[in-house]
């Protein structure tokens, strides 16, 4: 397996963008609020500075000092209009020149106003390559701004005649003033700010996907990790809420059956019958999967033993059956508090369960424990062990001494690719054959991927609370029994 291989598909990127809609919405909202805030502050600033936009438009005409056109006529020919159009760039330069602006200041007798300040706040543009010029002046007061704009029109005619010997301005739209928000801040700023936030949100989701890549395609089990896929189980809320072995599992039953049949075939070809199931992290769904796979094995007439060896976080017992006593656990069997017959729980005619219970000091895979497990495994067609995640507990590898293979579970869009590679590397170095990988909680693109994870999380949270209450109840009963026994002994 290529340790540095990483495949990024367009569909993966699209999925993470849609999945991160909350983040994108948040960034967009921040952009929107920022834009509105800018407009608000700009409006306040505008109210304080009272800045106005003075606008007008004029036609550039090709008149000489005598008021005649190029052919000494009082009426223009087409050639005069075309000629005027060629003068627009020169006219704009002359109008904004220091000479012309100073003439404007002098004509109005303005105090504390410089020619350069008028030129800096004046903009001139040509309308659609015609001889029409559009003027815009930003000024602090409406009255003075209108006076300056009118003076620009009046003075420019004289300046162009003196410099170019030809040219003049004829007003199309009279100068008018309009108050602008805060120094030329557009009201559409909130739109641009929201778009920037939207783009930033999308970019964040893409970068998070690139630098913290998770697996969302079953095909990556083989292409990225070199695992032979046993199949996938779709994300389903009813399945997550239902107890194992209940009729409510119908939505994914066919997928579980397919995985079970394929796994049996591989085990038979390899001539092995004992395996453990592990994953990279907790909450990847391996415990639920192994319970359902064991059920399918038993329905095929295979005498199957299901063992919970996740001592630090045992869930199999509470998940599969109710009212489990201390005597019906591997803990009791190991300490001699129970025998093989009493410790094993019979689920159906072909399926048995050896559960574990949580203790202050969890059991470990010492030689005595492994020997006890090996003795229990005898006389079964298949033995399945629910082990701790290999990515968190390397002690799992001691199960290699009493099993023949491992099955690896990867939950869709949950664990980072690099963490999965490290976990598989540990398994590979231990020389345990990997019978295959199972892709769990696969997201169906036809589902509403915005809502399903939320509902699933709520369902799993409720289930966790329920299990916690049951566990507290059992611990309370256990302590009560212990006190009773102690009192009888005394």
Keywords:
Rossmann fold; 2 domains; 490 residues; disordered N terminus; alpha/beta; four-stranded antiparallel sheet; single chain; Alpha-Beta Plaits; eight-stranded mixed sheet
Summarize the helices and strands and which ones pair or pack.
Layout: H1 10-19, H2 21-49, E1 52-61, H3 78-86, H4 88-95, H5 98-108, H6 115-121, E2 122-126, E3 132-139, H7 142-164, E4 168-179, H8 189-211, H9 220-223, E5 229-234, H10 237-241, H11 250-270, E6 274-279, H12 286-299, E7 304-308, H13 316-320, H14 330-335, H15 340-343, E8 345-346, E9 351-354, H16 367-376, E10 382-386, E11 405-411, H17 417-429, E12 434-442, H18 452-489
Parallel strand pairs: 5-12, 6-10, 6-11, 7-9, 7-10, 11-12
Antiparallel strand pairs: 1-3, 1-4, 2-3, 8-9
Helix pairs in contact: 1-8, 2-8, 5-6, 5-7, 11-12
CATH superfamily of the largest domain: P-loop containing nucleotide triphosphate hydrolases
Percentage of residues assigned to helices: 40-55%
Continuous helix count: 18
Briefly note the CATH topology name of the largest domain: Rossmann fold
Structural class: alpha/beta
Assign an overall shape.
Answer: rod-shaped
Instruction: Provide the domain count.
Output: 2
* Overall pLDDT confidence: 83
